């Protein structure tokens, strides 16, 4: 059985998972330059070692209550279709492993289910596995 790795992060009080191969790096919250006339969940852009990277607020994107930035707030930088994008999350908790038999489809219907690939059941914990292509586009 092949195990895969995921980055476990928190939005509000729920834990989410993102495949590690989709994750470029995790950085501390930094100054974000606002860009006018963008979607409501786009916070702006950052300068990441000379590259301009758009940043979205994942709480806003998933229609969750927006949390105040704390010392735990992080930006997960992902690369999708050649474009780097930063996603603001409340906290990054760990890197964990799971196997395919621990994934189940989302059990409930709703507007935000399109953003999920499934639910990872690991021991007594549940991680919502993000569908990055749906989150970003």
UniProtKB/TrEMBL annotation:
Q: Which SMART domains match?
A: CheW
Q: Which UniProt keywords apply?
A: Chemotaxis, Cytoplasm
Q: Where found?
A: Cytoplasm
A GO cellular component annotation here is: cytosol
Q: Which residues form the CheW-like domain?
A: 3-137
At the top level, the lineage of the source is: Bacteria
Pfam families membership: CheW (PF01584)
SUPFAM superfamilies, per the entry: CheW-like
Q: InterPro entries per the record?
A: CheW (IPR039315), CheW-like_dom_sf (IPR036061), CheW-lke_dom (IPR002545)
Q: Which GO terms describe its biological process?
A: chemotaxis; signal transduction
Q: What is this protein called?
A: Chemotaxis protein CheW
């Amino acid at each position: 059985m092949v195990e895969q790795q995921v980055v476990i992060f928190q939005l509000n009080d729920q834990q989410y998972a993102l495949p590690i191969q989709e994750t470029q790096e995790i950085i501390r919250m930094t100054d974000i330059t606002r860009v006018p006339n963008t979607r409501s969940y786009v916070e702006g852009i950052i300068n990441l070692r000379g590259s301009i990277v758009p940043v979205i607020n994942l709480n806003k994107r998933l229609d969750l209550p927006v949390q105040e930035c704390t010392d735990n707030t992080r930006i997960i930088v992902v690369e999708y279709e050649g474009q780097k994008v930063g996603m603001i999350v409340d906290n990054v908790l760990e890197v964990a492993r799971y196997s395919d038999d621990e994934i189940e489809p989302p059990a409930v219907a709703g507007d935000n289910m399109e953003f999920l690939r499934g639910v990872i059941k690991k021991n007594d914990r549940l991680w919502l596995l993000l569908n990055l292509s749906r989150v970003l586009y």
